[in-house]
Amino acid sequence: MADQTTSIRLIRVDDAEVIAAHKARDRREHAPWEPAQPDGFYTTAGQQARIEGLLDDHRRGDRWPAVITAGGEVVGQVTVSTILRGPFGKGFLGYWVATTRQGEGHATRAVAQTLTVMRRNLGLRRAEAHTRLENLASQHVLRANGFRPWGIAHAHILVDGAWRDEIFWERLLDEEPPVA
């Protein structure tokens, strides 16, 4: 049985090799959900450069990039981006899990842990996310963490060669989390 423990931690540049391996292997399976990337994105060097940019954003307070681990192994990522402080106090949540570890609850647990970081460590009061209309697995993760849909953005993202609609989701972080 696969390890059911899930943790999150700040991403490190030395995570690039394992992330590149996941991204390269899962490229076709993730294509319906993620914007196209150049071939270099799927290499260790490409991931090192991307992670360095994420960490620069983190140092400025604009982003909180983390990896999802299971039993100490990196199995995905969860990121709080577009952090807006002041009167908005919100961040945008994005996540993915390697296809070899999907269906084990890691995304649901990692999102729950990230919501705690958003509230306690980042001082945010609102989390937002988007999903494609067809991405029922991701919608399940969000619903399990107390998110509610609040609208549809038409032609919101260019994915797999076409502009796609997405559902907008919200979670007020001062609300009680759902009981698991």
What does this structure look like?
The chain has 180 residues and is α+β, with helices and mostly antiparallel strands. The protein has a single domain (6-172), classed as Gcn5-related N-acetyltransferase (GNAT) (Aminopeptidase, 3-Layer(aba) Sandwich), CATH 3.40.630.30. The protein has five helices and seven strands. A seven-stranded mixed beta sheet has the order 1-2-3-4-5-7-6, with helices on both faces. Strand 6 (148-159) and strand 7 form a beta hairpin. Helix 1 (16-25) packs across helix 3 (44-60). It is globular. 31% of the residues are buried.
Annotation keywords:
180 residues, alpha+beta, Aminopeptidase, 7 strands, globular, GNAT_dom
- What does the average pLDDT come to? 92
Treating each run of at least 4 consecutive H or I residues as one helix, how many helices?
Answer: 5
CATH C-level category: Alpha Beta
Largest sheet: 7 strands, mixed
CATH topology: the name is Aminopeptidase
Termini separation (Å)? 21 Å
Radius of gyration: 16 Å
What order do the strands of the largest sheet run in, or round the barrel if closed? 1-2-3-4-5-7-6
User: Which architecture per CATH?
Assistant: 3-Layer(aba) Sandwich
Principal-axes geometry comes out as: globular
Strand fraction: 25-35%
N-to-C SSE string, H for helix and E for strand: EHHHEEEHEHEE
Number of domains: 1
Low-confidence stretches: none
